[in-house]
Write a sequence for this structure.
C-alpha cells in the first residue's frame, strides 16, 4: 500500500484514509496539519487495481462501513468522520 507522508510531530503511527473529493477529508487533513501531527495518508479513490484491493482490505479491517475520513492511530484506535473535538483531544 502506497502512502504519502506529511511531516510533523511524532504522535504515534497515524494513517488517514481519505477521498480526494471529500470536503471532510480536506478538513481533517487541515486539522492534523494545524495540530502538527505527522501522518501517512492515501486517497482511496485515486488507487486502482491491486493497490485499491489492498487499501480497501486494510480500511475494511478498521471501518467496515468504508466511510471517510478514517484515521487509524497506532493500530488500536479509529476515528471515523470529521470529529474535530475527538481529533483535537487525541493529539493534544
Amino acid at each position: 500500500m502506497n502512502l504519502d507522508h506529511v511531516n510533523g510531530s511524532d504522535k504515534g503511527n497515524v494513517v488517514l484514509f481519505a477521498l480526494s473529493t471529500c470536503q471532510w477529508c480536506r478538513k481533517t487533513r487541515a486539522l492534523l496539519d494545524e495540530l502538527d501531527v505527522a501522518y501517512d495518508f492515501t486517497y482511496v479513490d485515486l488507487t486502482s487495481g491491486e493497490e485499491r484491493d489492498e487499501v480497501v482490505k486494510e480500511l475494511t479491517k478498521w471501518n467496515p462501513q468504508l466511510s471517510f475520513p478514517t484515521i487509524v492511530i497506532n493500530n488500536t484506535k479509529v476515528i471515523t468522520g470529521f470529529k474535530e473535538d475527538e481529533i483535537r483531544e487525541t493529539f493534544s
